[in-house]
Design a protein that fits this description.
By secondary structure, this protein is of the alpha/beta class. It contains 7 helices and 15 strands. The strands form 4 sheets. An 8-stranded mixed sheet has the order 2-5-7-6-9-11-12-13, sandwiched between helices. A 3-stranded antiparallel sheet has the order 4-3-10, with helices on one face. Strand 12, helix 6 and strand 13 form a beta-alpha-beta unit.
Amino acid sequence: MPRTVTFPTAIVLTLWCAAHTLVVDVLAGPLERVEFEGASQRLISGGLILGDHIQGYLAKPEGAGPFPAVIGLHGCAGMPDTTKRKLVDELVGWGYVVLLVDSFATRGIEHACTGGFPLIADMRRSDAYGALAFLARQTFVDPQRVAAVGFSQGGWVTLLVAEANSFELFVRPNNLTDNRRAITADRREKLNADALDLIATKGFRAVVAFYPLCRTVAGRLVIPTLILIGALDQFAPAADCSEKIDTWRTDGVPIEQVVYPGVHHSFYYPELQPGRTMFGHWLEYNEEAATDATRRMREFLERHLN
């Protein structure tokens, strides 16, 4: 039976349309359903918490590649259908492979907007790293050029995977480095051992976070990061991100933040016309902010993946 993972109200990062989480049948694009294992987490005791079986939806440009890739991470109630179409069409049109990760379907979760903070942090980072390893095994993906783009709760997860030492907490599914020989044999002309070493040690190349919750990100960020957020966001206050920017930049890693005046949470989602109250907070689409954020995301990805 579907279940709900609850969060304290203060850290709710919701997306609407929970009943249709990652329903892809209505999309016109060539999305393929794929499955992979989340990364297993290392315990201090030496044991492992095995990653879960996860579904995702894959789209790619025409041609053999290898292409740069983007992993998409939905919010606490999934991602609306029109937004999925918009995001996939944009990214594939720019020349990226896209993998939308569904963190809820195989777990029987309807939404995760009202509780369970520690659980969701580990669960969704595991999913992100499992998706990274899955893409690294595809002949049409360049594993040295993979970014994560997340929205709301998914944006928060992108900041977590950008933290120092985050990647070292997890073991890649099927032991990616041990599989180097088999993977390289399958695509000698496109993928060398150095690329796999990069994935095994550094993880993502860059991350983009739409209206993330910054206050829960304790460590410094070691991956180029772009934060896009509204000044009137009640779920994920822009001030929380602004207060941490200088700390995150201590190692010279490029950390960019754009704050849109007069803009609310979920400004990227066309479905939120008109805006509405959810979980006691206002969510509303803003065309001007969404258009500018799309432009900035494209420029940021081109700068760090190409």
